[in-house]
Amino acid sequence: MKKIFMGMVTLGISLLSSGVALAADGVAVSDSTVILAFSALAAGVGVGLAALGGGIGQGIAVNGTVLGTARNPEVGGKLMTLLLIGLALIESLVIYALVIALILLYANPFV
Q1: Within the chain, what is the greatest distance between any pair of CA atoms?
Q2: Domain containing 68: what range?
Q3: pTM of the entire structure?
Q4: Could you say which of 38, 44, 65, 106 would form a disulfide bridge with 83 (CB–CB 3.0 to 4.6 Å)?
Q5: CA-CA distance, 106 to 111, in Å (whole number)?
Q6: Domain tally for the chain?
Q7: Contact, 45 vs 66, CB < 8 A?
Q8: What is the pLDDT of residues 14-72, one digit of tens each?
Q9: Radius of gyration of the chain (CA)
Q10: Which residues are CB-neighbours of 98 under 8 A, at least 6 positions away?
Q11: 106 to 35, 37, 101: CA distances (angstroms)
Q12: 101 burial level (CB within 10 Å; 0-12, 13-18, 19+)
């Protein structure tokens, strides 16, 4: 876990310093270009984390439903209904993250 965290910190520092390096070489980097670059980075990371969390949540939900059905088969139908509602709610959170990412990419209010 520590290696992954240090890798992410190193990647973030290199991305933050890339704009300074380009400006030092005489390449003009406007504020809107930097904002668009960070917006694209934030959109990718946000959707990735949302998909990761949604996948983990759905896996835990399916695991609980299968275990509950295995222990008490009579409530399998009721558990399946609750599972589908829960999976739909989890997936809607991932879709909300995708919508915010698309807003950042195509209708960015900060530019």
Answers
A1: 72
A2: 28-106
A3: 0.69
A4: 65
A5: 11
A6: 1
A7: no
A8: 666 665 555 555 556 678 888 888 888 889 999 999 999 999 999 999 999 999 999 99
A9: 21
A10: 47, 50
A11: 12, 12, 9
A12: buried
- Report DSSP state, residue 108: -
Residue 100 belongs to some domain of the structure = yes
Q: Identify whether 99 is part of a domain.
A: yes
Q: Tokens in use for 49?
A: 């984390």
d(CA 65, CA 111): 46
Q: Which residue has the tokens 């990419």?
A: 105
Q: How far apart are the first and last CA of the chain?
A: 36
User: Between vectors from CA 42 to CA 38 and to CA 2, what angle results, nearest 5°?
Assistant: 110
